[in-house]
Hints:
- Strands 2-1-6 form a three-stranded mixed sheet. The protein has a three-stranded antiparallel sheet with strand order 3-4-5.
- The chain is mainly alpha-helical.
- It is globular.
- The protein starts with 13 loop residues before the first helix and ends with a strand.
- It has a single domain, classed as Up-down Bundle (Rhomboid-like fold).
- The longest helix is centred in the middle third of the chain and has 27 residues, at 91-117.
- The protein has helices at residues 14-32, 36-43, 57-60, 68-89, 91-117, 125-132, 139-152, 169-186, 194-212, and strands spanning 157-160, 166-168, 228-230, 241-243, 251-253, 270-273.
- Helix 4 (68-89) crosses helix 5 and helix 8 packs across helix 9 (194-212).
Amino acid sequence: MNSQLGRGPFATPPITLNLIIANFVVWLACTILPIGETIRDYGMLYWVGSEKFHVYQIFTYMFLHADFSHMFFNMFSLWMFGRTLELEMGWKRFLIYYIVCGVGAALFQMGIAQIDLATLEVGSREWIMYMQVPTVGASGAIFGLLLAFGMMHPNAIISLIFPPISMKAKWFVLIYAGIELLLGISGAQSGVAHFAHLGGMIWGFALLWWWTAPQWCLPYLFCFLKIKFKQIKKNDRQKSVVLFGGEGGTRTLAPVLSQPTPLAGAPRHHLSTSPW
């Protein structure tokens, strides 16, 4: 799968592009079709104890959003980080990583909800809210991408629109994760699934650890030492290796049989994005 849309700084590899299109199409369908509310009601993630819960919702909720701005900023972030990660991971592994982070975020959010519900009286206002208030959005998967970018490009500079500051990706990931944890524990920002965001990061880290386990050394995780990241594919002679960390971020060694054409202007050393 070598097709991509556009050239120069706006070039987008296929999986990232198709994920953005899919999210936009679902939002459009929910907005203009008469059955839009039905699509949302069946696709949103409800707590497992709710009569509206279905197992497939741990996947479908990623393609539903509260409103256009919610979808836009998630897709903008997917476009910013996904382009680089898809090129370096390969399209299959990138797609697996994205789905695992999104589904993992749902499972983590549901687990935290179960812990909260154990302390609530059945039929109380808070208990009823858990039954009726669903979770939507691709943010859990996006936070997984953010973690992967921070690990693979620790010294890349990320510039925020608000507040107008710049910092290295590794510190941005750590600070953002800390803020999400504090907000989740305190409940200061209601209506946002902070633990789903953290869940996407945790599952993303677990998957990266699994893929790189033979060369991994946990105590040095956030020192970003160089470790091997091998893409294993049976019956395929193409091999690629990505080195995590080290000064200058990630280096990609081209496959031995086919030389991929890098996206011109792909955001490898400097990104400008907005917080979600």
